[in-house]
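Hey, can you fold this?
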Amino acid sequence: MALWTDATDADTVAGVPARFVAAPASTEEAAAVLRDAVRDDLAVVVRGGGTKLDWGMPPRRLDLIVDTRRLTGVVEHAAGDLIVVLRAGTPLDGLDLAGQQLALDSPVPGATVGGAVATATSGPRRQLYGTARDLLIGMTVVRPDGRVAHAGGKVVKNVAGYDLGKLFTGSYGTLGLITECAFRLHPRPGVSALVLRTAPATEIGALLAAVRAEQVVPSAVEIDAPAEGPVTLAVLVEGTATGVRDRAARLEKVLGGQATDEFPSWWGRYPWDRVGMKLTVPLSHVPDLLTAGVAIRGSAGTGVLYADAPVESAPTVVERLRATAVRAGGHAVVLTAPQPVREIVDMWGPVAGLTLMRRVKDRFDPGHRFAPGRFVGGI
């Protein structure tokens, strides 16, 4: 039986067409697919919900797309231990875990578990609950040679074996195929409230400092800053009715804002429709990015922000934002951009540890067949 079918015109990755598509329904089928891909020397890119296929660089070569749309569902939900094991193709939207939650917000509707882990994406509530790397406690992967590997386990403090989970998180599919992920869960909060305040960019630094000083343990502190005009600050608190009411009242007083239970349309969504950037800076330097003349949105509570740069001035804007971030001790990468922009800007910027990253790639994928060229340094 054929393990893959001919690709269609829609089967492309960052504009590069594939020759074949495979959609395994289990880890065992995925291993068989990749063993045959080794035999035929096929270059492979993994596709989940297809929401971030334009992130990173186009693959240097693409023969086979491995689609995870049939690798879906809950493998195990140990409610008493606050643990869930999910197949990689499971959509993050609409997970029903009986009063518990996987607190991994997805900024992109339709994103899958495997895609979120592979690109290390997270949303507003990373401030309280952490990122995918923090929530992940175990993983099953198929290596590029078709061998299956397991890491971690179904207990939070499991330390056996190599931590492949952290290695594969954010690797952009360059080290192998993720088929299952085990996460720790949290109880779903009974009540939530959002305190909003709109103010000039010059006042945001003082408002953020006031939130930190109030020690109300917010789940998220988000900002929405258009290219021009005032900035909206939104602070999310969750928990019991009494606790949320008291903390929201304190925030209303210190911010001069207003509490609501309705989330704005921009909440947890990327701001771009042109050139998308990810910026990381220390908390004290978040206000430095708000006067750059571009749309900025994201987590002012963790210093992880996203920018929308105009295509026509992308090289200048990218250089300016990167310089600001690097001077502050942070980073700036271009996640997505039209091909003409990709060809003239440095998508990744300076990356510490690139030599080690290349050695890891050589060890896991000596033939450089998995997502070749998609990641930093041409990995």
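Oh, and this one too while you're at it.
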Amino acid sequence: MHVFVTGASGWIGSAVVDDLLAAGHEVTGLARSDAAAERLEARGARVRRGDLDDTGSLRAGADPADAVIHLANKHDWSDPAASNRAERDAVQVLGDTLAGSGRPLLVASGVAGLATGRPGTEADPSPFHGPDAPRGGSESLALEFVERGVRTVMLRFAPTVHGVDDHGFLAVLADTARRSGVSGYPADGTNRWAAVHRSDAARMVTLGLQAAPAGTRLHAVAEDGVPTREIAEALGRSLDLPVRPVPAQDVAAQWGWIGGFFGMDLAATSATTRELLGWTPSGPTLVEDIAAGAYR
């Protein structure tokens, strides 16, 4: 299968490209820089130059492909509205390009906001709709294309997709701890973050491409929920820093933009995904990765 991948040189995307190639698929990755293009070519993938603002490059990449995996996101926390617009426009263009073909469109999303007081499940619909919603309401938009003959599959990733060289949420928390001299946790630290190792997440994407029916929501979740206090304690041990609670009113001052996420309960399950795909996560746990020095 010839697969067009956006975000192909990113943290999750590069692992997905490797897994797709190992499974025998051909890959064309979207690259916005010479360095990204070189990394993709070194992996054995073809390159389509462009970015999320260049809808022509998205259309040109998707049109000849047998499937599309959309993993790219601007993640511009200084201008989330721009990120949301770009995400919605990208999904619209990719969906329009694949409409009526029955080809797969796998779209990255997350587990935030799915449930209150319990872990989110694959049965929970996204609460985000419309262009002004987080991610531009792209999950709801993408699923509308099922009625237009697209095999849409949602890829909901845990808030931490962890591993060596991670530069995501956990890396930001580790950097904050180093700068402040304290590994903190919000309030009493009982709120939880779902977690998955990068290699397990990549494998789930490949399995989902091959087997998930139209309209499926998949959860890339290996651990349903790691309490934020445990995360802070693991970082404290790894970085040799004291561990302390941060009162709710001081969370924003301590962590800035990421404080809102670190204070949320982002637990989720993946029982349905595992049963459907025969997916069994086998990588290190989050605390094991931290202990092994992944964030040191």
